Fold this protein.
Amino acid sequence: DVKVTQSSRYLVKRTGEKVFLECVQDMDHENMFWYRQDPGLGLRLIYFSYDVKMKEKGDIPEGYSVSREKKERFSLILESASTNQTSMYLCASSRPGQGSYEQYFGPGTRLTVT
Amino acid sequence: AQSVAQPEDQVNVAEGNPLTVKCTYSVSGNPYLFWYVQYPNRGLQFLLKYITGDNLVKGSYGFEAEFNKSQTSFHLKKPSALVSDSALYFCAVVVSGSSNTGKLIFGQGTTLQVKP
């Protein structure tokens, strides 16, 4: 079974802090994704990565950056946390190619910025 | 613009009754469609997908979904609901032209409440 783990289930940070969210997958997947989930808005893509050191902006990249130094690990960075970044953050991975596409999700990190 | 719509915020059904959670999509080209389920304070779990072939696809936990090209719909169904099916359900579609990266667009989610 694919396993995607996230470093924290719950996190409380102060406004202005730099925040790191870590995601690790154990299935050698090329693609990794960071989403935020807010009630009534579904999942919105922040960033994704299709290979080591490769990244692309998603729909809402402002205020975030990412790092992928190793294939199995994809980090989301909040450069200066703000209260409007309070949300559930979900990481996912997938293998590219025809007939595949399903993404495998981690348990999520509920971040509160005060 | 590509999009996925789940027209109902919440669906209520009695245990043992059939359930339907609706999804419509708008993409260019052939759609690759997915359903995911999320239990409280958990990540999303893959339920089923339509890539090609039979319009009726079967997935986990007794769920199935029917792809209807003319109505651009992909409704999730189950013949007999269980209380344990109560959860948040998301429909998703692969973004056209992203066959390599598999980027998904998600609907806003539908809460399914099954009452005993």
